[in-house]
């Protein structure tokens, strides 16, 4: 087998080999690893074999593979190795260590083998300690120094490095929580790790800790000697690496060995000296190990406090922070210094968080909490200096501590709302607030629209975190926070207004703070316009009074003043994209301000319309600006003077040109475009612009002729483009470009219509449609022509539903004549997912037009019910089919519900549909009986309640009184209401199932409203006795059904059901 393995490795690692042959070689090697219990001895031989000169016979690739096979053997061991296998491995590995690490070159030709062997040796240790190899550590300790040398002889550097790597591997395996979280939990492994930790603690922890510290100390001493002699090069690098490994190994054992072994009069001075070592990696490792010590889990809070006192880190950190900050004052920091300050920041944060836990836990004695709070207060200035660091990477290291400290203040405020903020606390909050606002600024050299996405995301995440600090300070001291934010924003805006030049990052921050100000005021009860003006009490409390007042005469609130300063500052002209982008975000967010200061509307519209706004050449901004412009127009539309509409439209017209990009040639079909959210480019955002056009045109109602003419000037180019797309498609049916052109033009027409108000429903007597309705009727006819020509294209069908949904809403009864044709053409060809969208479209039509579409729904209902019943009866094959089945069922039930909830319900018993009424009810009952789909089951019971209310109420009582419906109530529906929750599959602990139970209660209440005393008599005399319900429970049930309102009965019904379950 040896030769087979060698040949397979050679083939697998040779890129010149045939692919098939390489695959076979890899498959063979995988089988060798899978059969590790049988093949490990061959692997061990390949790893250890030597040539005639004593060197390793096989290549590094072969030897690494050999160790992988042994790893597989050891990782599969849930118990100890058999004695023969253990003896062979122990002897082989000890002899290998002696020959290679004591008398040899320690794998100098293949350094990666050293790391791999350390891992394998660690796995062997975990399998055999302590039962089979109790002397594991003592054996390693004995090799650290030559047995025939004096005790003061230098430690063997090769063995030392092996020992440290081994210790890092063992700590990682038994205690590293990150590694454990990445693995699938294994109870046996978990128990083994715990046992190993316990055994090491009781047997070898002292020697292990002593050995590590000896290696570190000796390395430090050698470094000092080499540095004093001016030494350098490979020798000093090796020693530095050894010290770094030593500190890392020590950090690995700190969390799981006794604290008395790691915190001693010898270790602390050593670690603190290393904090100032010239080598950055040693310094970083030292910060990490001290952080591990600080975070060491201790049972008693007093022990933790004593540990922190012994460490005396506060003074150390203050000194090191000042030293590292002043060291490069006025200069750009080196990467090493930045990394070190990050390490110190993490250490500060870790120490502070431990103190915060001690100081706030009320279960801890006051004599512990008090000193902990004092130590935390002493640490806060250092925390703030790290928070204020110019480098965001350093600043963010103390974010967890800042959050913890502000959290303490928030909770104190919550527990004692009337408590005054002390001067020391206010000073701290003020300093923190100043730093937070400063850190919210972009760096001067940044360009948010020309920088790496990850860097931009990192800053935005940091700003979000800083915003949470701002919120916390606001909660504790609202006056301080509001004042500081207002001052920073106002200073910058006033400077711009006066013509003073300010930095772009200061301008952007000012606008961003105005954007945030509304959220900082979210606790205020004043919403809408009242958030921006100081209204007298009679205006604040009387909605009718608000309609009469002149808001422009009222003084502004702080938020109103900021918005006015924003508009008047001229910041929108600042020559920086980030500043103008934030400006547009802000004005679009606070549309209500412009209703109290209407003179600001036109200046902002002007800003939106030029190259700063929707005409910007920056594509990624233009799409966002289309949306913000739409949002602004929608909010302030009632305040825009109608005379401004024509010139506004003229300014926008060049942006209404629809440009369609040809799809990639390798796309298999046009429908695949539907699954790509980016395929339409900026067109999806352009639709907001078309809707804004509709909104602006709707303002011309007082001049209806001009309104229709202007609308026509916008729709005519779209209709022409649509006609051209149809003709082009007829000439080249396979060309995807023409389908996209049709899709875009149809959706644009629908978006314009969306900007108009909804038509009145029902149509009032004498109502005459406005002239613009005729324009949309023309558009509807053109869309139907396109649908007929391209109804095989899903994109066109989807666009047609989209457009008609909006055209019907705005034109009302004027376009209902097109619905039958629309339905016929949509249903002539469709894919299963479209059925749900079609049903939802019908629901929208019913909701918008109600009785206006009675004839259409009357004609459509029976064939639609038959069609959907056929689809739902089909076998379900696969997850996708099941999801589609559930979606279709739910959508259809909701469509029926939209009919039943309004005046259209009589369509179910019309002359055309009456014969199918029983089948329809059977379908609903079938869904209500199916516990596998509680969502649809609930909707079904809602429908049954409405059917009972409409068709079960006698005509004499104001209902429709369908003959025989009362029999359905007594023979089918009431038994169903009790049988469903009694089913063994009905799990009331499930939230969705509980909602079904509640809806059944609504249905039962509906039966009483419909049949009154009759249903009570049926329940108490016939039905409940048949269910063996005790008479007193039956009488109580009908009394509650009679006397309680629906809300009260729903609760009672749930309790009744639980009681009946308990008694059964």
TrEMBL record:
Pfam families assigned: Exportin-T, Xpo1
Domain Exportin-T C-terminal: 369-1058
Cellular location(s): Cytoplasm; Nucleus
Every Exportin-1/Importin-beta-like domain range: 111-281
Primary location: cytoplasm
An example Gene Ontology molecular-function term: tRNA binding
Signal sequence segment: none
Any one GO biological process: tRNA re-export from nucleus
GO cellular component: cytoplasm; nuclear matrix; nuclear pore
Keywords: Cytoplasm, Nucleus, RNA-binding, Transport, tRNA-binding
Known function: tRNA nucleus export receptor which facilitates tRNA translocation across the nuclear pore complex.
Similarity section: Belongs to the exportin family.
Name used for this protein in its record: Exportin-T
Organism: Botryobasidium botryosum (strain FD-172 SS1)
Organism placement in taxonomy: Eukaryota, Fungi, Dikarya, Basidiomycota, Agaricomycotina
């Amino acid at each position: 087998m040896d030769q087979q393995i060698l040949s397979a490795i050679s083939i697998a690692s040779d890129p010149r080999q045939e692919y098939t042959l390489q695959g076979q070689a890899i498959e063979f090697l995988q089988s060798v690893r899978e059969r590790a219990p049988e093949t490990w001895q061959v692997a061990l031989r390949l790893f250890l074999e030597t040539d005639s000169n004593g060197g390793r016979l096989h290549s590094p690739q072969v030897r690494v593979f050999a160790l992988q096979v042994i790893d597989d053997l050891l990782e599969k061991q849930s118990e100890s190795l058999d004695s023969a296998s253990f003896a062979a491995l122990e002897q082989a590995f000890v002899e290998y260590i002696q020959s290679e690490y004591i008398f040899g070159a320690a794998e100098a030709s293949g350094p990666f083998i050293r790391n791999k062997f350390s891992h394998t040796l660690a796995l062997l240790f975990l399998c055999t300690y302590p039962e089979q190899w109790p002397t594991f550590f003592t054996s390693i300790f004995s090799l650290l120094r030559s047995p025939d040398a004096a005790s003061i002889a230098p430690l063997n550097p090769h063995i030392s490095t092996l020992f440290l790597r081994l210790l890092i591997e063992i700590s990682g395996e038994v205690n590293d929580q990150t590694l454990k979280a990445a693995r699938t939990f294994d109870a046996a492994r978990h128990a083994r790790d715990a046992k190993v930790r316990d055994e090491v603690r009781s047997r070898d922890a002292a020697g292990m800790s002593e050995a590590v510290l000896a290696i570190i100390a000796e390395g430090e001493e050698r470094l000092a000697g080499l540095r004093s002699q001016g030494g350098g090069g490979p020798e000093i690098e090796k020693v530095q690496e050894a010290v770094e490994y030593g500190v890392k190994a020590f950090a690995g054992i700190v969390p799981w060995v006794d604290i008395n072994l790691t915190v001693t009069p010898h270790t602390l001075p050593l670690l603190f000296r290393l904090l100032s070592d010239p080598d950055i990696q040693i310094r970083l490792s030292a910060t990490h190990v001290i952080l591990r010590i600080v975070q060491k889990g201790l049972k008693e809070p007093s022990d933790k406090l004593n540990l922190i006192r012994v460490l005396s880190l506060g003074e150390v950190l203050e000194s090191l922070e000042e030293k590292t900050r002043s060291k490069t004052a006025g200069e750009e920091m080196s990467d090493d210094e930045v990394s070190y300050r990050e390490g110190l920041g993490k250490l500060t944060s870790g120490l502070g968080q431990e103190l915060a836990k001690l100081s706030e836990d009320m279960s801890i004695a006051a004599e512990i909490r008090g000193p902990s709070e004092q130590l935390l207060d002493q640490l806060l200035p250092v925390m703030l200096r790290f928070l204020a660091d110019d480098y965001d990477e350093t600043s963010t290291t103390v974010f967890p501590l800042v959050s913890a400290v502000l959290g303490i203040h928030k909770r104190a405020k919550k527990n004692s709302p009337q408590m005054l903020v002390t001067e020391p606390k206010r000073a701290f909050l003020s300093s923190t607030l100043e730093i937070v606002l400063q850190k919210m600024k972009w760096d001067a050299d940044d360009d948010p629209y020309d920088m790496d996405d990850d860097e931009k995301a990192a800053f935005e995440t940091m700003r979000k975190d800083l915003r949470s600090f701002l919120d916390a300070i606001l909660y504790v001291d609202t006056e301080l926070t509001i004042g500081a934010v207002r001052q920073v924003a106002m200073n910058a805006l006033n400077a711009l207004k006066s013509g003073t030049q300010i930095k772009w990052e200061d301008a952007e921050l000012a606008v961003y703070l105005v954007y945030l100000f509304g959220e900082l005021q979210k606790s205020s009860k004043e919403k809408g316009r009242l958030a921006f003006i100081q209204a007298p009490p009679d205006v604040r409390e009387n909605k009718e009074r608000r309609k009469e007042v002149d808001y422009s005469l009222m003084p502004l609130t702080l938020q109103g003043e900021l918005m006015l300063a924003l508009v008047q500052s001229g910041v929108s002209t600042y020559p920086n994209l980030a500043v103008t982008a934030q400006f547009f975000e802000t004005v679009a967010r606070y549309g209500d301000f412009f209703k109290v200061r209407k003179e600001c509307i036109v200046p902002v519209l002007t800003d939106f319309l030029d190259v700063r706004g929707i005409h910007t050449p920056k594509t990624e901004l233009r799409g966002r600006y289309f949306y913000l412009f739409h949002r602004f127009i929608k909010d302030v539309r009632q305040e825009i003077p109608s005379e401004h509409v024509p010139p506004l439209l003229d300014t926008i017209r060049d942006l209404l040109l629809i440009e369609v990009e040809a799809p990639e040639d390798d796309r298999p079909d046009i429908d695949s475009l539907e699954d790509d959210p980016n395929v339409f480019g900026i067109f999806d955002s352009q639709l907001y612009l078309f809707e804004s056009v509709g909104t602006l045109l709707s303002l011309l109602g007082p001049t209806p002729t001009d309104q229709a003419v202007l609308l026509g000037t916008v729709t005519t180019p779209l209709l022409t483009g649509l006609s051209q797309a149809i003709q082009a498609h007829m000439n080249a049916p396979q060309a995807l470009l023409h389908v996209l052109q049709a899709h875009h033009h149809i959706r644009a027409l629908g978006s314009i219509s969306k900007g108009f108000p909804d038509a009145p429903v029902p149509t009032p007597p004498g109502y005459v449609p406005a002239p613009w309705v005729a324009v949309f009727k023309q558009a509807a006819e053109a869309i139907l022509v396109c649908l007929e020509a391209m109804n095989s294209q899903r994109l066109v069908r989807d666009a047609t539903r989209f457009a008609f949904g909006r055209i019907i809403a705005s034109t009302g009864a004027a376009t209902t004549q097109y619905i039958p044709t629309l339905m016929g053409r949509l249903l002539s060809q469709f894919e299963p997912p479209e059925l749900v969208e079609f049903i939802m479209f019908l629901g929208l039509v019913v909701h918008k037009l109600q009785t206006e579409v009675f004839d259409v729904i009357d004609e459509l209902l029976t064939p639609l019910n038959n069609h959907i019943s056929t689809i739902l009866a089909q076998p379900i094959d696969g997850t996708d089919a099941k999801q589609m089945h559930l979606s279709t069922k739910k959508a259809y039930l909701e469509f029926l519900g939209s009919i039943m909830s309004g005046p259209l319900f009589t369509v179910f018993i019309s002359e055309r549909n009456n014969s199918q009424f029983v089948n329809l009810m059977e379908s609903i009952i079938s869904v209500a009986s199916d516990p596998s789909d509680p969502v649809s089951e609930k909707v079904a019971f809602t429908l049954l309640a409405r059917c009972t209310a409409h068709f079960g109420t006698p005509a004499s009582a104001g209902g429709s009184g369908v003959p025989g419906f009362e029999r359905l109530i007594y023979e089918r529906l009431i038994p169903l209401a009790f049988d469903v929750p009694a089913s063994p599959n009905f799990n009331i602990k499930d939230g969705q199932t509980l909602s079904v139970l509640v809806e059944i209660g609504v249905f039962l209440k509906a039966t009483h409203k419909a049949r009154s005393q009759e249903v009570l008599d049926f329940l108490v005399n016939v039905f409940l006795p048949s269910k063996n319900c005790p008479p007193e429970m039956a009488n109580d049930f009908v009394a509650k059904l009679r006397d309680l309102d629906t809300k009260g009965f729903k609760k009672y019904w749930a309790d009744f059901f639980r009681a009946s379950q308990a008694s059964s």
